[in-house]
Design brief:
By secondary structure, the chain is an alpha+beta fold. It is built from 14 helices and 35 strands. It binds beta-D-glucopyranose.
């Protein structure tokens, strides 16, 4: 950016009110092109001559602000008046940057950021026909004023006064903002993507007026109203109704998630500009003529990162299809610039563990390469000298400690990006971070070749947790050491793909495997078995898979796994001949299961298997998100095993494909399609009177395996049959 650009902020403290920065100019000559570049300490919304400059929302987005702050550049040529005056106005809200963050998140860094002023930085470049260029940079020649946005923040919501007549122009001051950390937009732009229309107005037993959108979304509500000046609207957001059918938002914890709106006279339509919420229901706490409101007055606008939908799962079972849809919505709702644990309560953080758990499914559902590369660069920037990967990225917790299976995101995520999209530059860029993380473990452990000690989240939310604990019963040391082995094995694969010398890591890997076997010669929980099997640490996989299957069956075909075991559970079974049991878990409708939440009306994926109990009561207020994507990771098993579409490691990015469907007679049909850079792969199986029919379409050479028979085929469409069974 031009050297004359300065960080500016209002000279007077406007407290909670969002300032609007203004610049008026007159072009003497007609520009052939005009480019606006902006960033802010907060989130901004820019207008030229009253028109929004872009449909990108919540810019500049969320990055590891201390190290990286994105700026955006927009072509605004079409918005300029060639004759007369032009107005540029930029509204700045607190966003993530100056958020006090939720109750849980009160590290020193957030206080420092909160103390920063509402800053704006950037300028307009006007290019003329004669080759000259004029620049209008943010500096003290700008003015500012109070806007109608009286308050805006990520967790607490927004207050807007449509009757507020701004006008008074105030001076701005320059300040020393972060100009050495600026980077151009790296992630996918966040935009308004979909509209969900209100389905029903509910009068609850408690006498509340609640609007049901029928689907949980992340974004904001837009409403239309005919009102008198000064009439007030207050809207609260909720994910579910309680057992009595009343509005509920206890699980948002300290996030107020509230809209306050003061009307002007007449018809008006409005939605928040600088914040977002996650909700299926809204409660109209105050609304003009509340008894007469109609569904047509409300729309839920889903806001998420611009990702191309690439994968689809479909089958003959309506509840399973609903679950597939919940996985997709879980991703849309939590892929708003940063992969977050949940989008509603006072958290909404880039939890590394959640992201590594879900990344495979995510990368099949949508093209998330650009989305994740931005986040991985933040991760790399946040990795400290010792190699520690923080629990959340951007590191808003500043705890200075790392957990197994969370920090391993540093290795698992780049590897998955490479497998899904086949771009070696991902590994080239991230290899240093990957190695450093495994080196960190080597220094953090109290015993060589394992990861012993440290503070970990364990098999988070596993159902075998001792009462009162969030952590499943699987041993921390076993989980940590198993992930250590897995990460080192991926570092070796990445190194080989890059042509690096990996001898050091290969030696380390065999020592880890040996140490693991010596130390853990038996497994106690589903998750312990699952990790030993899937990370190839078990000395006798056949025996251990059998024991795992027995353990599950003896427990009434119930899963007990948490965040760490769940994504691998069905893989552990199907890899060792227990596909039928894997399907039993997938198709189970009673608690605990994926479909239990569907039966309880879920429209996104729950954080807990028992978020809502059989009797309609809640697990708790404390930690009960109804929109956590982690358990949606099972979708990767449906793509890779049930439908059977898998990348071939030697040709990542689906340059070649392995297609090995695993049908199950409890479904009539199931299929998946996957758009790759080579074209669309499709694999569907259909139950017939004589067995199964497989319809396969591949744009690349494929290795197809049906009932143990291998077919090597070229690109094309194929129809195959299971041998007829008598
Ligand atoms: C989050 C999780 C996260 C966990 C770490 C929770 O509060 O919501 O998804 O991974 O903390 O244990």
């Amino acid at each position: 950016m031009n050297r004359g650009v300065r960080w500016i902020s209002p000279q007077e403290d406007m407290k909670d009110v969002c300032p609007v920065f203004m610049k008026r100019w007159k072009s003497e000559k007609k520009p052939v092109k005009a480019e606006l570049t902006l960033t802010a300490l907060g989130v901004y919304c820019a207008y030229i001559n009253g028109k929004r400059v872009s449909d990108q929302v919540l810019a500049p987005g969320w990055t590891a602000y201390g190290k990286r702050l994105q700026y955006q550049t927009y072509d605004v040529t079409a918005l300029l008046r060639m004759q007369g005056e032009n107005d540029l106005e930029v509204l700045v809200g607190k966003g993530w940057y100056r958020s006090p963050m939720g109750e849980q998140v009160k590290p020193p860094g957030s206080r420092k950021r909160m103390a920063m002023p509402a800053g704006l930085y950037g300028g307009l470049r006007l290019f003329y026909e004669d080759g000259s260029c004029e620049e209008i940079c943010t500096d003290v020649s700008w003015e500012c004023g109070e806007s109608s946005v009286r308050f805006s923040e990520i967790y607490d919501g927004e207050a807007y006064d449509a009757s507020f007549a701004s006008g008074e122009k105030k001076a701005v001051k320059e300040f020393a903002g972060p100009d050495h950390t600026l980077i151009p937009q790296e992630g996918e732009a966040v935009r308004e993507q979909e509209i969900v229309y209100a389905k029903e107005i509910i009068r609850t037993p408690a006498g509340e007026t609640v609007v049901d959108f029928g689907q949980e979304i992340t974004g904001y509500v837009e409403f239309s109203v005919n009102a008198h000046e000064g009439e007030r609207i207050r809207i609260l957001h909720g994910e579910v109704l309680d057992a009595q059918g009343n509005f509920y938002r206890g699980n948002y914890r300290s996030a107020r998630a509230q809209i306050d709106y003061t009307c002007r006279d007449g018809e008006q339509t409005w939605h928040p500009l600088l914040t977002f919420f996650a909700f299926r229901y809204i409660k109209l706490e105050m609304f003009p003529r509340i008894d007469e409101v109609k569904t047509g007055q409300f729309r839920a606008i889903a806001v998420y990162s611009d990702m191309e939908r690439t994968g689809r799962l479909f089958c003959s079972d309506g509840e399973l299809n609903r679950f597939f849809s919940n996985v997709i919505w879980g991703q849309k709702c939590n892929f708003l610039d940063v992969p977050t644990d949940c989008p509603q309560r006072d958290e909404r953080l880039g939890w590394t563990g959640d992201a590594q758990v879900f990344i495979k499914a995510a990368s099949y559902n949508f093209n998330v390469k650009r989305f994740f590369m931005k986040w991985l660069r933040d991760m790399k920037a946040e990795q400290d000298e010792s190699g520690l990967i923080p629990q959340v990225v951007p590191d808003y917790l500043e705890r200075g400690s790392a957990s197994a299976a969370w920090g391993d995101a540093a290795v698992i995520c780049p590897w998955q990006m490479y497998m899904a999209y086949g771009d070696i530059s991902v590994l080239r860029e991230m290899y240093g971070m990957m190695k450093k993380w495994t080196d960190y473990i080597g220094n953090a452990t109290s015993e060589p070749y394992l990861w012993i000690g440290g503070e970990h989240f364990g098999d988070w939310l596993g159902l075998d947790a001792p009462s009162g604990s969030y952590k499943g019963s699987s041993r921390d040391d076993l989980i940590a050491s198993a992930f250590y082995a897995n990460s080192v094995s991926l570092v070796i694969k990445a190194g080989k793909a890059l042509g690096e010398d990996t001898q050091k890591y290969e030696k380390l890997y065999s020592k880890i495997v040996q140490a693991f076997r010596d130390r853990f010669d038996g497994y106690c929980t589903q998750t312990e078995y699952v990790l030993a099997l899937c990370f190839e640490l078990s000395p006798d996989p056949e025996r251990d898979a059998r024991r795992l299957a027995e353990m599950i069956r003896e427990d009434g075909s119930r899963l007990r796994t948490g965040f760490v075991g769940t994504p691998w559970l069905l893989h552990a079974l199907s890899r060792h001949g227990y596909t039928e049991l894997a399907y039993t878990l997938l198709l189970r409708r009673e608690y605990p299961s994926w479909l239990y939440s569907v039966r309880k009306g879920a429209t996104t994926v729950w954080e807990h298997w028992d978020g809502i109990m059989e009797d309609g009561s809640f697990w708790s207020d404390d930690m009960n998100s109804f929109n956590h994507y982690a358990y949606g990771a099972v979708a990767d098993w449906v793509y890779e095993v049930a439908a059977g579409i898998r990348p071939v490691e030697e040709a990542p990015g689906f340059g070649r494909v392995r297609i090995e469907p695993h049908p199950d007679g409890r479904l009539e049909w199931l299929g998946a399609s996957l758009k790759t850079k080579y074209g669309e792969i499709e694999s569907v199986w259909i139950r017939t009177d004589k067995g199964f029919r497989y319809e396969i379409s591949t744009p690349v050479p494929a290795e197809i395996r049906i009932d143990g028979t291998e077919y090597k085929v070229n690109a094309g469409k194929y129809m195959l049959y299971s041998p007829v069974s008598n």
